[in-house]
Amino acid sequence: MNIRAAESANPLLPPVGEIVIGTITFAIAFFVLAKFVWPRFEQVFRARREAIEGGIERAEAMQAEAQAALEQYRAQLAEARTEAAQIRDQARAEGQQILEELRAQAQEESARIVARGEEQLATSRQQVVNELRGQIGRLAVDLAGRVVGESLEDQARRSGTVDRFLDQLDGMAGTSADGRGGATGSSVYAPQGDR
Amino acid sequence: MTSSAHALADVLAAEGGGEEGGFQAPSIAEFYPPAIFEFSVLGIDFEITRIILIFWLATAAMLVFLVLAARNASVVPGKLQYIGESGYSLVRDGMARDVIGPKGLPFAPFLASLFFFILFNNFMSIFPFAQISPNSKFAIPLVLAVIVWVLYNYIGIREQGAARYFKDAAIPPGVPIGALILVTPIELLQVFVIRPFTLAVRLFANMFAGHMLLVVFSLGGVYLLTAGGIFPLFGAASFLMALVMTFFELLVIVLQAYVFTVLTATYLNGAVEPAH
């Protein structure tokens, strides 16, 4: 096609040769790109995405691990706290119990002591009463015996009695200061008790 | 810009002949450089022109760049890999996944190929010594648009079934019956004719116009510099403008590659998911 012919050419009516050349060239270019270039880029994108996702996954796993550790730590802490509270409560309860026991024991002890004291008091009182009763009886008998005894005694002993009484009085005069005259007297009249 | 001026000065010299007196505005002949090599196969004439060589070189450069970027690709990218990867993930995530939806990822390789192919070929419009984009030849955008057209129709039929796909295309759901007289022809025309046509023309026209703009300012600058008087001053302004337009062209290059790919993704989205 020479230049003069081109002057009248319509630019929107391309020669068939150019269309064929354009088609073939684009086809070759597309083939080469689709075979050697774009798949490589896709591969790189995939590798990059996997690398990033792997990193994210690792980070997530780590975070989960940390979270689990924290949970565990918290659970242990809570457990320890409840345990401590339990121990404290128990200790308090035990202390209370011990106090109660001690108090009960002390009360018991004091009650026992009081009871023993009362018992002892009662015993000694009884003893005193008994003793007194015996002595009073004896004294009464003695006195009665002394008042009327002389006449009631048989003749055989009557003579002896007076003497003895006199002796006794003599003895009593010697020991009356310590009040044993009565006791001596009773021992003197022991044969009467045998009677 | 001077390289463009040189390159085109040849064309002008061949064309202008004896009319040295006035300014020769660039014409559509810009896009029909003489064939370097010609042959015919099965009755089809092939002309290997400068633009076709640029087309092949740009495509080869793209392949070399991307293959180098992808070779030894690792999780921690090098500079080259990073650039290639960024382009790919822009298309993969921004278009295949976000525009088409969950079924979009299988289309990422096609969309990314389309994007880089258009981008590198567009870039030839400001690449020194090339200075013309193969996409300013309608054949290349047309080929791409037809491939996209075939693909989204095929996917639509495969995903929704032929009956459903064509029915939805002709009778969009939710349209009152009376309006169908108007809507059905428009919809059919739009899906099966206008879409691929606009897709191709948008890219082609942008590259075509961009090239024309640059050539006009460059050649104008050259002409004014030699015009004498105070005109070299305007010549300098013209070159400055050419520089500014080059940066503008850079924007258009990226934008058109992006737009073509995004629209492809949008059409594929319509094919993958039934109309609602």
UniProtKB/TrEMBL annotation, chain A:
Entry keywords, A to Z = ATP synthesis, Cell membrane, CF(0), Coiled coil, Hydrogen ion transport, Ion transport, Membrane, Transmembrane, Transmembrane helix, Transport
Q: Does the keyword Lyase apply?
A: no
User: Do you know which Gene3D superfamilies this protein is assigned to?
Assistant: F1F0 ATP synthase subunit B, membrane domain
Which parts pass through the membrane? Answer: 19-38
- One MF term from GO for this chain? proton-transporting ATP synthase activity, rotational mechanism
Q: Which residues form a coiled coil?
A: 56-112
- Coiled coil as a keyword? yes
- GO cellular component annotations, sorted alphabetically? plasma membrane; proton-transporting ATP synthase complex
Pfam families, A to Z: ATP-synt_B
Q: What does this protein do?
A: Component of the F(0) channel, it forms part of the peripheral stalk, linking F(1) to F(0). F(1)F(0) ATP synthase produces ATP from ADP in the presence of a proton or sodium gradient. F-type ATPases consist of two structural domains, F(1) containing the extramembraneous catalytic core and F(0) containing the membrane proton channel, linked together by a central stalk and a peripheral stalk. During catalysis, ATP synthesis in the catalytic domain of F(1) is coupled via a rotary mechanism of the central stalk subunits to proton translocation.
Which HAMAP family does UniProt cross-reference here? ATP_synth_b_bprime
**Protein name in the entry:** ATP synthase subunit b
Report the gene name.
atpF
UniProtKB/TrEMBL annotation, chain B:
Coiled coil: which residue ranges? Answer: none
Q: Which domain of life is it from?
A: Bacteria
Keyword presence, Lipoprotein: no
**Pfam families to which the protein is assigned, alphabetical:** ATP-synt_A
Entries under InterPro entries matching the protein = ATP_synth_F0_asu, ATP_synth_F0_asu_AS, ATP_synth_F0_asu_bact/mt, F0_ATP_A_sf
SUPFAM superfamilies according to UniProt: F1F0 ATP synthase subunit A
> What's the main place this protein lives?
membrane
What molecular function does GO assign, one term?
A: proton-transporting ATP synthase activity, rotational mechanism
**Keywords on record:** ATP synthesis, Cell membrane, CF(0), Hydrogen ion transport, Ion transport, Membrane, Transmembrane, Transmembrane helix, Transport
GO CC annotation terms, alphabetical: plasma membrane; proton-transporting ATP synthase complex
**CDD domains named among the record's database cross-references:** ATP-synt_Fo_a_6
Report the locations given in the UniProt record.
Answer: Cell membrane; Membrane
The membrane topology of this protein is: Multi-pass membrane protein
**Where is the chain membrane-spanning?**
48-70, 107-132, 138-155, 175-197, 203-226, 233-259
Keyword Ligase assigned to the entry: answer is no
Family label: Belongs to the ATPase A chain family.
Under the heading PANTHER family, the entry gives: ATP SYNTHASE SUBUNIT A (PTHR11410)
Q: Give the protein's biological function.
A: Key component of the proton channel; it plays a direct role in the translocation of protons across the membrane.
Q: What is this protein called?
A: ATP synthase subunit a
Query: Whose protein is this, by species?
Result: Geodermatophilus africanus
Task: Tell me the gene name.
Answer: atpB
